[in-house]
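Why do we care about 3D structure at all? Because function follows from shape, and shape follows, mostly, from sequence. That is the central idea of this module. The next example makes it concrete: a single protein chain, its amino acid sequence, and then its structure expressed as tokens.
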Amino acid sequence: MSIVSAVILCTVVGAIGAIVLVAAAKFMAVEEDPRIEEVAGCLAGANCGGCGYAGCADYAKAVVMDGVPCDKCAPGGPKAAAAIAKIMGGEASAVEKKAVVQCQGSTEHCKPAYDYKGIQTCAAAAALYGGPKTCSFACVGLGDCTKVCKFDAIHIVDGVAKVDKDKCTGCGACANICPKKVIMIDAAGPRKPVVMCSNQDKGPVAMKACTTSCIACGMCERTCKFDAIHVVDGVARVDYDKCKGCGMCAQKCPKHIILFPLKDDPNPPKPVVKQAPKPAAPAAQAPKAEVPASQAPAAKPAQAAAQPEAKAEAKPETKAE
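And the structure:
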């Protein structure tokens, strides 16, 4: 076979193959819903997996094809949820979720149970006698949550995890990795109480482990008029479907472990600390200015009596001269 014949044969075979592929692509193609691409364009594109899917593309497909809720993209927030809901012809929830560490077991309040020298991960430390702290329910504080956070929104401060609310997107990666499960993704909102303790031991045992632990006294439960908070497994739990956000449970808690509204500082200010002596100080000095005025009339006669004596002494001197 000559070279020309070989070239012609290859060209014909290639042309036939191209025609077959074009025909197959036209008649056997599976059309994709154009909304999938639109939904994917509304997502943050972080592929963090907080929605429960492998990536943003899989979540977008699940929203369109399976009817998955449109508010699962935590990094995108309410804006992404509203945009997706508009594409899907529905409404999105406006609640913005944030991570909350339900533990105040810092180095000041929760002492170490032993000197841990093992692998510096929370998972490894928690597997050894329940963790290196006296409270077996406390945050281990070795930073597994900080390593998985892609938004630099959680850090270890004084042996306990602290969340930066401005950076947190509520993706849930920190909550999933925490071996003690003290991190929850808060959907309560800023005007609902949050119990900042996870200790399930009884009151005396809990107090020995941590000075800021819930003692299960039930004061919050008795105070709530809406039956929204109960002591379950030795620690207070809030039912946010019933909670009205009155804040009475936070005011009555003797250990101040219920925060309302949600704050970064776990130590609420004490109302008794107000000092009133400072404004009263000028009033106390005022009588001192009045005392000379009251004594002034009594001093005038004494001065008047002293003046004639001086004149009497002066007259004999003039006569002697």
